[in-house]
């Protein structure tokens, strides 16, 4: 019975998150109430509160879902059998594109993400750590094959991620989209130069 | 007469900007009115409007003043006679420190800067271009002496500036101050590696 009720519980949480994301996108985070979410699911607000103790917990779960999609897609690119330099380039481009698709050109979703980031920074930190870990995996392979030089791989991965902030951070993507600066490909050239073996 | 009245006019503009900055810092940009600024200067709001057509123009001038201080200080570091690698490091650190001092730990000033950046993006773009130009000057010297490799110096300067976004951008400085990530020195090591001559 435990397994079944666990499954039912996970399913209910999942349904709440999907409906919440839909409403946050449609009418905005601030204007959406737990009662609105409950209504779409034909349940009482009290029942929603059985699964999430606050709207803040719901937005954290929505953010986690969106970030989880990025992490999974990035992992696929990172493990595709391709030369390591090209793979790192494609990985960095795909993180940029995955974040852009999710967070740009949708003011309501953008508001939601800004709030989610402010209120649940630990969720974001965990996401950044996972993405940095994926980048570090590719850098480590390049170091092993002699194609990259990085005496401290986790640090090189953090620096790579930080160098790409303009292209990874939802707010920076929006703010800098039309502003002068390097293209994402030019920036990756610069990062790859920083990882090149010393002469 | 023209020279004298030009001087008087510049002086009045300067006084308005100094008083406005003081009020924006003390009571916040949103709550400060043109009438408040006029009152401190013992003049009529109409007289302030002779020099600035709106509060938006005043905040642009305040932002320009703050950014101008950063540009001048950066220029001094960039032209101090020191080895070029060390000079670039000190330049990047000083831009980080100058921006941190100005914009961190002062919520009201931070609000002001966020609004100034949003409403007067052209002022910010001009500032970023000047700072990037200063960075480019040091990189060009290093290229000439063989200490740096950068086939396209303006692009290398833009990439350097972009790589340092976490440490230069007022909002990113505030948001990332306590978050995991490379230290500013570690990030500069990474940037310098990207500018190192190829083997």
From TrEMBL, chains A, B:
Keywords: DNA-binding, Transcription, Transcription regulation
Gene3D superfamilies: Tetracycline Repressor, domain 2 (1.10.357.10)
SUPFAM superfamilies attached to this UniProt entry: Homeodomain-like, Tetracyclin repressor-like, C-terminal domain
InterPro entries, sorted: Homeodomain-like_sf, HTH-type_TetR-like_transc_reg, HTH_TetR, Tet_transcr_reg_TetR-rel_C_sf, TetR_C_27
One annotated GO molecular function: DNA-binding transcription factor activity
Residue ranges for the DNA-binding region feature of this UniProt entry: 33-52
Domain of life: Bacteria
Domain HTH tetR-type: 10-70
UniProt cross-references to PROSITE patterns, sorted A to Z: HTH_TETR_2 (PS50977)
Any Pfam family hit: TetR_N
UniProt-recorded name of the protein: TetR family transcriptional regulator
Organism of origin: Tardiphaga robiniae
